[in-house]
């Protein structure tokens, strides 16, 4: 399926971009990025229009990039400012520039029509930047799989019992109903597991020894940003759903970036209401998350390999697939909307519809 282009995608953490030229790929489009002298991050098409050499193989001169083949030089807006050996600058001598936004230590790139880039549409949470919450940037999980499968996995609480039995799940949740809501901007799937043994994660970081009430809320924002709100509280407190902040609560943030049809990068971070400012706790959480996400990676890559093989029959869908099914439809609708241009209602139509 084609990619959704009119969207913001995460290129990396703020710390990934400095003076050096950084080549990367998003939606099969090659980019070269760097931090300009004024502090803003620049993203340009990584291909000289002359002989197609990637600009990332050239060198940076101030806030411009000089092609490493014949020296054509481009500024941060993609305009050619020098052609060695001639004074005139052809109008076709440019590279595409991509809108960039940076916030909370995250660098976003708009991959579609620049005129439609709206920073108010970038994912945000009230807890980001709040003094009672701690944000920690994790790793980049490189997955040899299509991004749709990666994103679907992040709106699927049911897999946790089986894929992550020692870290994020256990057998207590296997038959607990999953609730799904698809009417809002985000697809949401959730469930509570009441009066059960704590999972490995919260044995380590919540200090729970007796039974707990625990929750998983999965939010999937189009086209591929996911938030997993999960936590635990002592079972005898009988906490209401809207009072989750009174328990140990963590947001696992997944910024899923399609690289190609067969390759995805999951930039993951976590946001928590405990151990605020404690970097040792962040490192310990990273270790456990790496174990859990490696389990996801193994499953997703195996699924991707099988999807590429010939099938004798169609895959089946079961009750827990409600969220992923709606997600696929929304992506198809977004792709279709980008494939055509609506010119609006005609002034003097020659076609009149009666139904």
TrEMBL record:
Superkingdom assignment: Bacteria
InterPro entries: Cholesterol_7-desaturase, Rieske_2Fe-2S, Rieske_2Fe-2S_sf, VanA_C_cat
A GO term, aspect molecular function: monooxygenase activity
UniProt keyword Protease, yes or no: no
Protein name: Vanillate O-demethylase monooxygenase subunit
Ranges where the Rieske domain occurs: 8-109
Gene Ontology biological-process annotations: methylation
PANTHER family in the cross-refs: 3-KETOSTEROID-9-ALPHA-MONOOXYGENASE, OXYGENASE COMPONENT (PTHR21266:SF60), IRON-SULFUR DOMAIN CONTAINING PROTEIN (PTHR21266)
Pfam families linked: Rieske, VanA_C
Species this protein is from: Puniceibacterium sediminis
Keywords assigned by UniProt, alphabetized: 2Fe-2S, Iron, Iron-sulfur, Metal-binding, Methyltransferase, Monooxygenase, Oxidoreductase, Transferase
Keyword Oxidoreductase in record: yes
């Amino acid at each position: 399926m084609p990619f959704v282009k009119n969207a913001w995608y995460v290129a990396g953490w703020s710390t990934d971009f400095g003076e050096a030229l950084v080549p990367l790929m998003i939606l099969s489009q090659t980019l070269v990025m760097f931090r300009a002298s004024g502090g803003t991050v620049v993203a340009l098409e990584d291909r000289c229009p002359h002989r197609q050499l990637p600009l990332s193989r050239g060198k940076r001169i101030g806030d411009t990039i000089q092609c490493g083949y014949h020296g054509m030089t481009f500024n941060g807006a993609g305009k050619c400012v020098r052609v060695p050996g001639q004074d005139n600058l052809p109008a076709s001598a440019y590279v595409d520039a991509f809108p960039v936004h940076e916030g909370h230590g995250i660098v976003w790139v708009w991959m579609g029509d620049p005129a439609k880039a709206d920073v108010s549409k970038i994912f945000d949470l009230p807890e980001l930047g709040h003094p009672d919450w701690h944000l920690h940037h994790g790793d980049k999980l490189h997955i040899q799989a299509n991004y749709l499968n990666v994103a679907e996995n992040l709106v699927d609480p049911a897999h946790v019992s089986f894929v992550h039995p020692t870290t994020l799940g256990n057998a207590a949740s296997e038959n607990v109903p999953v609730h799904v809501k698809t009417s809002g901007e985000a697809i949401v799937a959730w469930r509570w597991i009441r009066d059960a043994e704590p999972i490995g994660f919260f044995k380590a970081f919540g200090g729970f020894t007796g039974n707990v009430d625990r929750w998983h809320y999965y939010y999937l924002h189009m086209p591929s940003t996911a938030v997993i709100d999960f936590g635990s509280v002592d079972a005898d407190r009988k906490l209401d759903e809207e009072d989750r902040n009174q328990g140990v609560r963590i947001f696992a943030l997944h910024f899923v970036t399609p690289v190609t049809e067969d390759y995805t990068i999951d930039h993951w971070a976590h946001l928590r209401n405990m151990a605020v400012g404690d970097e040792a706790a962040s490192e310990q959480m990273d270790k456990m998350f790496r174990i859990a996400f490696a389990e996801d990676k193994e499953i997703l890559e195996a699924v991707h390999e099988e999807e590429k093989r010939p099938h004798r029959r169609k895959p089946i869908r079961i009750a827990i697939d409600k969220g992923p099914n709606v997600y696929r439809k929304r992506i198809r609708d977004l792709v279709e909307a980008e494939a055509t241009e609506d010119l609006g209602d005609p002034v003097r139509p020659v076609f009149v519809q009666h139904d």
